[in-house]
Structures are given as structure tokens and as C-alpha cells.
Specification:
The chain is of the alpha/beta class and 427 residues long. It has 18 helices and 16 strands. α9 crosses α10 and α17 runs antiparallel to α18.
């Protein structure tokens, strides 16, 4: 009886120690945090590991273990780890993947955990990408606009007006330019639209497109109006009417277009800003390329983005320590290091001012000029978006861009079929 009582008291003491976030008794009270990073480019992985090493050297009582994750499987992997109680303390993800995890109670609300410096340094337009309901469930820290990567020699010889962030092309002018650049088996543009939904919706913000509309009851419905149609109609007409866009790249990923781009088959390729690293590394000797802003519409250069994020697991017993590590990782200079490693833009206003991000080389200055125009992606807080995207929107856009269906068919499928999917998540 006494042995059972002693055993029970010991178990209770250990339980209370775990609940209060104490360190591991077997490790001399030292706390260990698990940080799952999705960095994949060599420079980015190196920057993350160096920062973890610097933290560990300066914080002997709070050790961070670096865990390598993968963008290809992160959603399912995280869901499994959440449900199994094995989630890492600090989670690297993207803001458009957080909604279901936030509403499902898997992520910690960060409002009482973040430092005043970090909260004030990142603009509210970026914080909106990780705000769900009344809580904040991630720190947005890296972002990338979509840009036009162009064959500089081809454009210069053609005599077309070269756009700048101050004087961008309109969508109509962009379409006209691609027509002028096309002919003899060459195309003005190659759209890599293997994943067509986010590219289309995010660029449509420039034309005033919203697509998702939230009513007073909080429920979201899809309305594919005139502003939402500007960008998809431009892409469709380039590929099917003007023949100024290569039809063979519509089902390709961004990297798949680079051999043709280097080979002089396409004058321009719309890509995420971070693709510049691959281009800089793979471009043939003497190949001149430049970064141009994406076309502007009624709302100027506005673009939707889903920044990379750092979140803390709701089940982590060391939330304060995890938040301190996030704060260290995202100090302005460290944020610059992460941005340079990923060839992306930091969200922090102080980091964005760093001279290293304002050079003309590799188009950095063009990218930083677009940072103020980046907005929360349209689907950011829409529950059920992953299913709507995979089952409805992706096949519908793919068929429209290939010319298999018309604009009315696209609208019907996005609205009618899409709203049936979203309704299941909003009951």
C-alpha cells in the first residue's frame, strides 16, 4: 500500500513538472525544443542550421534540435504528428496551410507570446495572413511576389517598352507585348501552371479580384465576377487565341520552363521571386536576364501572397521558450540572412531596408519595390480551401486554360460546385 502511494506521489510530481514547462530531469533540467524547418535550398538550410547553432551556444539551458521537413508532405505529416501528440515545438509552414490547424486547435495563439519588437516590425498586412478568428497562429517572415523573368537581350532588340515598378505594364499591354514578341515557333510568354489556382487568384488581386466573399454570418461564398476574370481570360487568350503563350507549358512546373527559356523559345516566364536562384545558377554563360514586375490592373501592383510562417504547437510545454527562439530567429539581421538564403523577401520593415536587398544584381531591387503591394492571399482564411482547390478549382482552371471549356463553364464550376464543397466546412 505504501509503495503504491509513493509511486502515485512520484507520478504526480512528474506530471506537474511537465505541466509547468520544466526541463528534462534526466538532462539536468535543460529544455529541448524541436524546430522543424522546411528549408530546402543549400544556402537556406545552411542559414537555418547556423542560426540554430548560434542560439544553442548562447542558451545552454534551452537547446534547439533542428529537424528537416519537406514541403511536399508537410500538411499530412503535421496532421499525423498533431493527432499523435508528437508535433515539433516550432513549426515552419506557409500561411495558406494554417487555417484548418488553427481552427482545429493544433496551434498556439501567439498574441501573448510575441515580443513587442516583432509585433511592430512586421506590418499588419502580413499579420493578417496568419490571423484566424481572434487569434494569431503564425509569424509571417518570408514572402515572394510573382515576377516576370525576361530574356533581356530579346526584349531590348524588340523595342518594346520595358516596365518598372513605377510604370508597370497593364494586363492589356502585357498581352499586346507578348503578341509582338511571338512568331517563328517562339512565344512571348510561357505560363507554368501545373498548380494554377494560387497563381491565378494571387495575381487577380491586381485587377480587383476577390473571388471569396464573406457574409455577415461569417460564411464564405465564391463569386467569379468581372474583376476575377481579367487574369484568367488574359492567360486563356494568350494560349488559345493569340498563340503568344506556349500551350505545352500550361501543365508544367516553373523549373520545367527554364530549358526553353534559356534556349530562346520563350521571352518571359512568370515565376515566384525565389526562382532567381535557379536561373542564376543554371543560365548559360552570356545569357542576359532581368526581373520585371507582374502586370498591374485596377488595383495597381497588388498581389496575394502566402508567406512562410513559424508557429508553435498548442501541445508544446515550452511555449515561452519557443517564442523566444522565434524572436531570435527573426531579428532583423537574422531575417535578412534567411531571406538571402531562400532568395525571398523578409516581411520585417527593418530587414527590408538592408542594402543587400536593394541591389540591381539578380533583380533584388525590383522585388523589394513590390513588397509594399503584397497582400493576404484571397483564400487565406477560407476553411475547406484545400479541398476546393484540389477537387474543383485546379481541374476547372486547367481545362479552361487548355481551351477545353469556356469562361461560363469555368464560372459555373467555381461557383456552383465550389460552394457545395465550402458549405460542408461552414455548417
Amino acid at each position: 500500500m505504501r509503495a503504491r502511494l509513493v509511486t502515485g506521489i512520484l507520478a504526480l510530481v512528474l506530471l506537474l513538472a511537465g505541466c509547468t514547462g520544466g526541463g528534462d530531469p534526466a538532462n539536468g533540467g535543460r529544455i529541448t525544443l524541436r524546430f522543424q524547418s522546411l528549408a530546402w535550398q543549400q544556402e537556406s538550410v545552411a542559414a537555418n542550421k547556423e542560426l540554430v547553432k548560434e542560439w544553442n551556444a548562447a542558451h545552454p539551458d534551452v537547446k534547439v534540435d533542428y529537424i528537416q521537413g519537406s514541403w511536399d508532405s508537410v500538411h499530412d505529416q503535421l496532421l499525423t504528428s498533431f493527432e499523435g501528440g508528437e508535433a515539433p515545438d516550432i513549426i515552419h509552414d506557409a500561411s495558406d496551410d494554417l487555417a484548418d490547424f488553427a481552427y482545429g486547435g493544433y496551434l498556439a495563439d501567439l498574441r501573448g507570446l510575441l515580443s513587442p519588437r516583432l509585433k511592430s516590425d512586421i506590418p499588419q498586412r502580413s499579420w493578417r495572413t496568419t490571423t484566424f478568428g481572434d487569434g494569431v497562429y503564425g509569424v509571417p517572415f518570408l514572402q515572394e511576389p510573382r515576377v516576370l523573368v525576361a530574356n533581356a537581350t530579346w526584349l531590348r532588340k524588340s523595342g518594346v517598352r520595358i516596365p518598372t515598378p513605377e510604370h508597370p505594364w497593364s494586363w492589356e499591354e502585357f498581352q499586346q507585348v507578348t503578341k509582338e514578341l511571338s512568331g517563328d515557333g517562339r512565344y512571348g510568354v510561357a505560363w507554368p501552371l501545373k498548380e494554377p489556382v494560387s497563381a491565378t487568384l494571387n495575381l487577380s488581386l491586381s485587377a480587383g479580384g476577390e473571388l471569396f466573399h464573406r457574409g455577415v454570418d461569417g460564411k464564405v461564398t465564391v463569386r467569379f465576377g468581372a474583376s476575377d476574370q481579367v487574369v484568367p481570360r488574359t492567360i486563356h487568350d494568350q494560349a488559345n487565341t493569340d498563340r503568344s503563350a506556349s500551350p505545352t507549358t500550361l501543365g508544367s512546373g516553373g523549373s520545367d520552363t527554364l530549358p526553353g527559356f534559356f534556349g530562346g523559345k520563350y521571352a518571359m516566364v512568370p515565376l515566384g521571386f525565389s526562382y532567381r536562384q535557379q536561373i542564376a545558377q543554371q543560365a548559360p554563360k552570356g545569357f542576359a536576364w532581368q526581373v520585371l514586375p507582374a502586370p498591374a490592373g485596377a488595383d495597381g501592383l497588388a498581389q496575394g501572397v502566402s508567406p512562410q510562417t513559424l508557429s508553435i504547437a498548442a501541445d508544446s510545454p515550452h511555449k515561452k521558450e519557443a517564442a523566444a527562439f522565434v524572436d531570435f530567429l527573426l531579428r532583423p539581421r537574422n531575417m535578412v540572412r534567411l531571406a538571402l538564403g531562400d532568395w525571398m523577401l523578409p516581411t520585417g520593415t527593418r530587414a527590408l531596408k538592408d542594402p543587400a536587398l536593394h541591389t540591381a544584381e539578380d533583380g533584388w531591387a525590383t522585388g523589394t519595390a513590390l513588397a509594399a503591394h503584397l497582400r493576404s492571399a484571397p483564400a487565406q482564411s477560407v476553411r475547406g480551401y484545400p479541398e476546393w482547390k484540389d477537387k474543383v478549382a485546379t481541374p476547372a482552371f486547367q481545362e479552361y486554360y487548355s481551351g477545353a471549356i469556356g469562361l461560363d463553364d469555368l464560372r459555373h464550376r467555381l461557383e456552383q460546385d465550389g460552394n457545395l464543397v465550402l458549405a460542408r466546412y461552414q455548417r
